[in-house]
């Protein structure tokens, strides 16, 4: 069975879906690994490290795409690359097949067995494969560092000969994986940290990291550990209390998301106008439109003295560790396809009774298949 990794083609993408460590494990499992030269370079993994791990390096993407039974990627291959993948091959990565009609059509036309990892059910067994969580951790960490860089203030309290500096007040909106990492990071930098989320169970998690839970009196616990959408009245009340509170906040890091929907708009333009000059908002939810009305995805703007940043693909900025985690997640997932049966038959093994495969594969398969 040939496992292939080509260079990522999305602009600014530095991560790689296989590290020398996971390459070695794939080889130990009997796979032949074909990799495009320099595919790991932007994540600081050298070609030599991959050859030492047993990979065969090739110069061009096409040699990978046409040879692989199983292709691993971070972001989806571009249209040209999709057209070169061997018909019927398996493709594993953050594929967002519905985000781009041409991409979805190409996957269907090439009869690829596509596993968009963002579709993975979030069960206990899937935790070790959960790329959304591992990448969100890096994003939350980087978001706070960006905020600290943009802020015209210290985060920690300082007692100096030039007087005492009070610590910055940081509010983290949304306490999922990214939000909790943001809280932990801001805390380590010495800020006074608050977090809030519509899921009440986050209170304990925020407090365990040394943050204060901001209680806006609105709960929206939904099914399967996700948030549900708030009603109009609940939203209005949340907004009013939040607007008041933000007048005393120096830095906001936004991470609130509802799966499969645009990010909830939580910070209005009026709330931003009410904040102190020199305040900073870093909106990690920019990817899905942003939690702040003023956020421009991919851009940093200033409004009434408040800086609003909407950085994209923050996980890529921590490419070494983000790739290490991503690659381990991917290895754990593809291990399902590379079981003993696969080793015997020399073909990927698809157990469609396994919900992790059946629920992740795209397009959805009819039950009888
Ligand atoms: P996410 O990225 O989907 O959302 C981020 C956070 O935003 C969530 O905590 C959500 O409650 C919050 N949010 C949504 N609307 C909001 C609003 N209007 N105001 C304030 N906050 C709002 O979430 P995530 O990081 O992927 O994780 C969500 C939960 O799922 C976490 O508890 C996580 O531990 C859990 N989880 C479980 C598994 C597993 O068991 N396999 C895997 C991943 C995540």
UniProtKB/TrEMBL annotation:
<comment type="function">
    <text>The transhydrogenation between NADH and NADP is coupled to respiration and ATP hydrolysis and functions as a proton pump across the membrane.</text>
</comment>
<dbReference type="InterPro" id="IPR007698">
    <property type="entry name" value="AlaDH/PNT_NAD(H)-bd"/>
</dbReference>
<dbReference type="InterPro" id="IPR036291">
    <property type="entry name" value="NAD(P)-bd_dom_sf"/>
</dbReference>
<keyword id="KW-0520">NAD</keyword>
<feature type="domain" description="Alanine dehydrogenase/pyridine nucleotide transhydrogenase N-terminal">
    <location>
        <begin position="4"/>
        <end position="139"/>
    </location>
</feature>
<protein>
    <recommendedName>
        <fullName>proton-translocating NAD(P)(+) transhydrogenase</fullName>
        <ecNumber>7.1.1.1</ecNumber>
    </recommendedName>
</protein>
<keyword id="KW-1278">Translocase</keyword>
<dbReference type="Pfam" id="PF01262">
    <property type="entry name" value="AlaDh_PNT_C"/>
</dbReference>
<dbReference type="InterPro" id="IPR007886">
    <property type="entry name" value="AlaDH/PNT_N"/>
</dbReference>
<feature type="domain" description="Alanine dehydrogenase/pyridine nucleotide transhydrogenase NAD(H)-binding">
    <location>
        <begin position="148"/>
        <end position="310"/>
    </location>
</feature>
<dbReference type="Pfam" id="PF05222">
    <property type="entry name" value="AlaDh_PNT_N"/>
</dbReference>
<keyword id="KW-0547">Nucleotide-binding</keyword>
<comment type="similarity">
    <text>Belongs to the AlaDH/PNT family.</text>
</comment>
<keyword id="KW-0521">NADP</keyword>
<dbReference type="InterPro" id="IPR008143">
    <property type="entry name" value="Ala_DH/PNT_CS2"/>
</dbReference>
């Amino acid at each position: 069975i040939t496992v292939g990794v080509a260079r990522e083609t999305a602009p600014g993408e530095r991560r790689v879906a296989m590290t020398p460590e996971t390459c070695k494990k794939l080889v130990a499992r009997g796979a032949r690994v074909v990799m495009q030269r320099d595919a790991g370079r932007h994540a600081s993994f050298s070609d030599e490290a991959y050859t030492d791990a047993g990979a065969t390096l090739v110069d061009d993407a096409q040699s990978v795409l046409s040879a692989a039974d199983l292709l691993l990627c971070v972001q989806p291959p571009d249209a040209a690359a999709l057209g070169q993948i061997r018909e019927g091959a398996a493709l594993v990565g953050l594929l967002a097949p519905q985000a781009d009609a041409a991409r979805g059509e190409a996957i269907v036309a090439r009869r690829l067995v596509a596993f968009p990892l963002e579709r993975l059910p979030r069960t206990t067994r899937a935790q070790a494969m959960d790329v959304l969580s591992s990448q969100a951790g890096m994003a939350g960490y980087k978001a706070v560092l960006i905020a600290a860089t943009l802020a015209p203030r210290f985060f920690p309290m300082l007692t100096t000969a030039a007087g005492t500096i009070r610590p910055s007040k940081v509010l983290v909106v949304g306490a999922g994986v990214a939000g909790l990492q943001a809280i932990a990071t801001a805390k380590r930098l010495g800020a006074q940290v608050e977090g809030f989320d519509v899921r009440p169970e986050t209170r304990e998690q925020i407090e365990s990291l040394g943050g204060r839970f901001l209680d806006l009196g609105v709960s929206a616990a939904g099914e399967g550990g996700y948030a549900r959408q708030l009603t109009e009245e609940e939203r209005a009340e949340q907004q009013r209390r939040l607007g008041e509170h933000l007048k005393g906040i120096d830095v906001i890091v936004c991470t609130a998301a509802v799966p499969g929907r645009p990010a909830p708009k939580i910070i209005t333009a009026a709330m931003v106008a009410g904040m102190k000059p020199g305040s900073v908002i870093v909106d990690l939810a920019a990817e899905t439109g942003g939690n702040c009305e003023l956020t421009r995805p991919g851009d940093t703007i200033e409004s009434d003295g408040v800086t609003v940043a909407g950085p994209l693909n923050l996980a890529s900025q921590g490419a070494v560790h983000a790739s290490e985690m991503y690659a381990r997640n991917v290895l754990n997932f593809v291990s399902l396809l590379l079981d003993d049966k696969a080793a015997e038959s020399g073909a990927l093994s698809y157990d469609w009774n396994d919900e992790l495969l059946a629920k992740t594969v795209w397009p959805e398969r009819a039950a009888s298949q």
